[in-house]
Amino acid sequence: MSEPRASIPVIGIDLGTTFTVAGVRKNLTASCVYYGDRETLIGDPAKKKMAKYHGKVIYDQKRLIGKSLIDEKIERSKKFWTFNLQAENDGKPFVLVNGIESKIVHPEEVSAAVIGKMLDITEKSEGFRPKQAVITVPAYFNQAQKQATMEAAQKAGLEVLQLVTEPAAAAFAFTFDREQFAEHYNLLVYDFGGGTFDVVVIDLNNGNLEVKSICGDTHLGGRDLDDLLAEYVMNTASEMIGFECVTTSNNRARLMEKIEALKIELSSSEETNIYLGDMIDGFDEDIVITREKFEDLCEDCINQTIQLTERCLRDAGMPEIQEVILVGGSSRIPMVRRLLQELFPGKTLNYSIDADEAVAYGAALVAAKLSGALNSNQINLSEATPLSIGTEIGANGRFDPIIYKNSKVPAFETMTIYTMKKYQDSLGLLVYEGERPMVNGNNKIGELIVLDIIPDAPGKQKVEFTLSLDQNGILSVTSNYNGRIQNMQIDYQEARRHALRDIDELIDDAERYRHIDLQEEKRLKKRDILYRLLQEIDYNIDQIFRKNEKTSMRTKWEEIQKWYDNNPEAPEIDIDNKIEQTRGYFGSHAASSDRKIDEVFRDFRISQNVDLCFLVDTTGSMGPYIDGVRNSVYSIVEKLTKERSKLGRIADKVHLAFIAYRDYGDSKQFEVFEFNESVEAFHKFVGSLIAYGGGDVPEDVFGGIEKMLNLSWSTENAFKVVFHIADAPCHGRDFHALGDLDSNAAGDPNGRSHIDLFKQIRDKGVEYYFGKINNSTDLMVQKFSEAYGSPITDFNIANVANIRDSVVSAVTATVRRGASNDETKLEDVE
């Protein structure tokens, strides 16, 4: 019989770069291990050996765990490390310990030793040896780094109940015993530790801590400030003595001890000094370091943390932050606090829990909660994934995000992938993490190949793949082909070799190359379309063409296929021309066949964005419908951007706009939200609207339409939809039977014509849909249809719950029409 969880000893561990803390006691343990000829020492005893036995003491393993040595950041740090760092053939780092022949130590072993030391300390001080733990990791750890941390704990004989990100653990600690919070109380956690930096925005609502956005850098911390200060000190000493001072490995360890103490002292003093006479022969002077000089040296690093903080706020939709929580030893630096105070004027910087211990305390609280020692009704923690996880789509290396960056975990998404070639008997799924639109800019995680697929026409066989992130943020993948289930075994050694970039680098690259990436993504989509067309035609030549035409058709197909193979870098315009040439040639020769070529082409379109504008009557009776839009917008965007067909989604991106209109004489006749990709910003705007005004029954519909036409609609490559929601018609007796209830029965007071307005709608390429609440708008919609030149679809949304599905149906219908009516739009929307 298994032991009840509440009786199993459980602790929380903050496995830090420079120090490790167990949540059951407040003493710090240095995160380093000494491998001697006769003994192994861990923690502070190991740290004391650094100066004399520098090559035998390993530290900073957190910067190496789960990484490849082919990493620029590791290369930069190597010059300050005193141990002998090398790499295996696959790039996995290891340390060759001096004095012990062939003694190879991997970062996971160092972490395991440090964890084991924490278990020993806990057993000695608390009287029990923990069997389970909650372990914290940087928020920006990738899949390989998380898995390596799990392996380190297992090596120490510890079961990991949960991995918790360091800033989330800190937020848990700071909020756990506080009783009153406003609804949607927004916290920002700034975690500047010894080796890593993380920043998160967290929404605290009804006892739930939900991570909304994450930013950070796994190679930015106090160690980097130490390195900058050490470099300055040695350069200054060289200038003073007249020749270059070079430190030995032995002296370097002693220098870094002095530098760390100097840095700490500058947090409370305006200046201090460092003596190097015991390290440099003939040098017997103090070097004075002022806080101003220190801040000048560290300015770029600290500013980088502020820039990441600003990015985190943008990713969260720029919420108002109620509280800033400071975590990590480097958050004590006065310049850090000064810049944060400037960024959040009037807000209190909260450092009420020791910066070095807050994360471990939070981990201990989470551990107690998971073990049943704490009331389950107290604060719950919900984390997010720092990177999008997705697959390669098409034949040209495009990346298709499946689980998006900042998605709540646990998370899972199911997608369907179709065969692309005729008689294809296997189908592979390549999984990546990153934000670039091409897979070669992201980290490869793994691959799953499904064999024994029934040979068939292109697109006829399909496999369902489910990507799941567990509570630790660790990925698993399964496939389902006709009921046959298969699991992807992720080789994290392979993932480490491919993970040449940290998460922060992937995000930086995505922003830096965004414009170039968008152009290249568009070009590659066209190549994918041409590829799919060629595969469809290859299979269907026998079905479409007469016997005497097949030879010439096959020759033409081979000519175009050869062009495709030989021109991978062809510009977009050339690919467009080749698509049209393919369509025109095969279409004209198949015009008299039983199966028209359009049946091959009709399922294709070029993926586009969607401009979706809500045009809403916001007078006194419309409160429930305003709330309906607000409450459904997240789901609307999710359905449009995540539900997939053979080649992709209904929409790549959705840009949202909102026109709130009322009537003449109302204090705010119009309120406008311009097109914006941020669902959070849209949600906030709609939440600020109040239903009021109206006077007589009709409203200024024409004014609302005019405002809608003046929005910044996309000029190209977008489907444009306006969804009009109203319970009252426009002014003018031609549009209703309200008689004296219309104070402007003669028509629009400004002389605007519905015919002119709908001509402008048509000319802009906007598709107009109406959300019907009652019958009073029927005549108006009929007149609008006549001016529009085609019947307007009106959806019955008298029940507010119908808004979501109605809007999704409207956008989907627009996309489908675009696929069938516009011969240049060639990607599947089924």
Q: How many individual β-strands?
A: 34
Report how far apart the termini are.
Answer: 52 Å
Approximate shape: globular
Quickly give the CATH architecture of one domain. Answer: 3-Layer(aba) Sandwich
Q: Which bin fits the share of residues in helices?
A: 25-40%
CATH superfamily of one domain: von Willebrand factor, type A domain
Q: Strands of the biggest beta sheet: in what spatial order?
A: 18-17-12-13-14-19-22
Count of helix runs:
22
Oligomer: single chain
Indicate the mean pLDDT.
81
**CATH classification, class level of one domain:** Alpha Beta
Give me the secondary-structure category.
Answer: alpha/beta
Q: Which consecutive residue ranges, at least 5 long each, have pLDDT under 50? A: 1-8, 591-596, 602-607, 819-830
**Largest sheet, strands/sense/barrel:** 7 strands, mixed
- Our estimate of the beta-strand percent is 15-25%
CATH fold descriptor of one domain:
Rossmann fold
Subcellular location: Secreted
InterPro entries: ATPase_NBD (IPR043129), Heat_shock_70_CS (IPR018181), HMCN1-like_VWA (IPR056861), HSP70_peptide-bd_sf (IPR029047), Hsp_70_fam (IPR013126), VWF_A (IPR002035), vWFA_dom_sf (IPR036465)
Pfam families: HSP70, VWA_4
Protein name: VWFA domain-containing protein
